[in-house]
Amino acid sequence: MAEPEDRLLMLIDDEPAQCRLITSLAAREGWRTIVARDSETAIAQLGTRQGMQLGAIILDQWVPGDEACALIAELKARRPALPILMLTTSSSPLLAVEAMRAGATDYLIKPVAPDRLLQALRTATTREVPADELQPLTEKLGAPLDFDSMIGAAPAFRAALAVAAKAARTQGTVLIEGESGTGKEMLVRAMHAASPRSRSPLRIVNAGGIPGNQIESVLFGHEKGAFPGAFDRHVGALQHADGGTLVIDEADRLPQSVQSRLAHFLRRGDAQPIGARHSFRLDVRTIICSNTPLRDLVGAGLFEQDMLDAIGSTLVHLPALRERSGDIPALARHFLARIGEQPGLRPLGITDGALSLLAAYDWPGNVRQLQATLFRAAVFCDGEVLTAQDFPSLSSLMGEGPRSAPHIGDGAGVMLFAPDGNLRPLEEIEADVIRLAIGHYRGRMTEVARRLGIGRSTLYRKLSELGIDSAPDRAA
């Protein structure tokens, strides 16, 4: 059987070193790269026979922002279906907004990890998932640094936060497990802010973004001449984090030889750079993050039992968003409030119909994907509130069947907006809150009053004024 032809990628860039790097990375996934050094060459290339076979474009924002966005718009006008990824050193939300409005499919901040670049290419060219809606954006809004700012009422999520908050006050190693996008980095930063080491360094090493033959040097450092290519001495992340906290993300990707050295460090607290004669005694608090349960990997022979034992017993498991869909309305409103603070954007409301659509989706990219989807919808919204029509690809993915608003009993909370996108009257919202509390606490009115922060007499007065039956709904 003949091998399929390589996919063709056009890179618009004038930096030879970066061109070689991206060409090499793209080749791992079967991409053949052609390079255009300027915008005129890129536009001319679209009209050639080779240009008609393009599967994607990567544009380095080496020209001023307005010109880069103008080039994106021109490319998109000529080839509307062609995914365009923009590389930039700028973390400006305004540039992200401008690039997306011009037609960029994704927005990558340099230096971008190899896996992140390949994943962006992979996702942008996957036809099963609508390419204009569910792209993960690297544009990050300012992350909250305390536990109180982490949104969610689901029992599994609150239990994870309780374990993390308790562990934050200790000095021991912590293992945080959860799918990609569930908020592990945000939790790590909250733990660091609440720890006795909050004023000390916090170093994060992503094992998944570093070649396997380099991760040992990144963590432990090396001496000059320790191996071919070691032209200078390198201080490792462990030594840089002395007195503070080191986070090893995607620890499930660590080579097993490095796991053995890390296990020794976790037990003894001393690290020896590659090629050094002596080890260093270090005071480092270590947090290990993994997208996959490490115990499952041990059972499959892909992770060292010795390393798992050295990590210890403090485990924080962050549930996937699909396991706490009742938190989606609160998360959506929280993200929209933060998105509205960004340059070029404004605060937006969201209708119950849109929330029902968001709650019905599985969110394989979890909270990070939800935030990216809301960001994209906010960029293109012309009204004052987001409706289901502002998520066309999600609507297509979920089908056109009717969706009821999230039910209070499912944990979605009280609906604040009417179907027309306007806020409901305060009296109606208050009545729903009281009904919710009566049902949740099975008609125990003393507990209902206590949880609502009012006296029993005030509660009964409100029941009378609002015409609420105090008997809890025991159906089903």
Automatic annotation (TrEMBL):
| Record-annotated Response regulatory domain positions | 8-125
Record keywords: Activator, ATP-binding, Cytoplasm, DNA-binding, Nitrogen fixation, Nucleotide-binding, Phosphoprotein, Repressor, Transcription, Transcription regulation, Two-component regulatory system
Matches recorded under PROSITE patterns = RESPONSE_REGULATORY (PS50110), SIGMA54_INTERACT_1 (PS00675), SIGMA54_INTERACT_3 (PS00688), SIGMA54_INTERACT_4 (PS50045)
- Modified sites of kind 4-aspartylphosphate: 60
Spell out the Pfam families in the cross-references. Answer: AAA_lid_14, HTH_8, Response_reg, Sigma54_activat
The record ties this protein, via SUPFAM superfamilies, to:
CheY-like (SSF52172), Homeodomain-like (SSF46689), P-loop containing nucleoside triphosphate hydrolases (SSF52540)
Q: Which InterPro entries match?
A: AAA+_ATPase, AAA_lid_NorR, CheY-like_superfamily, Homeodomain-like_sf, HTH_Fis, P-loop_NTPase, Sig_transdc_resp-reg_receiver, Sigma_54_int
Q: Which domain of life is it from?
A: Bacteria
Cross-referenced SMART domains? AAA, REC
Where does it localize?
Cytoplasm
Supply the Gene3D superfamilies for this chain: 1.10.8.60, 3.40.50.2300, Homeodomain-like, P-loop containing nucleotide triphosphate hydrolases
Domain Sigma-54 factor interaction residues, every copy: 150-379
What is the role of this chain? Answer: Member of the two-component regulatory system NtrB/NtrC, which controls expression of the nitrogen-regulated (ntr) genes in response to nitrogen limitation. Phosphorylated NtrC binds directly to DNA and stimulates the formation of open promoter-sigma54-RNA polymerase complexes.
- In Swiss-Prot or TrEMBL terms, this protein is called DNA-binding transcriptional regulator NtrC
Q: Which organism is it from?
A: Novosphingobium cyanobacteriorum
Starting at the broadest rank, the lineage of the source organism is: Bacteria, Pseudomonadati, Pseudomonadota, Alphaproteobacteria, Sphingomonadales
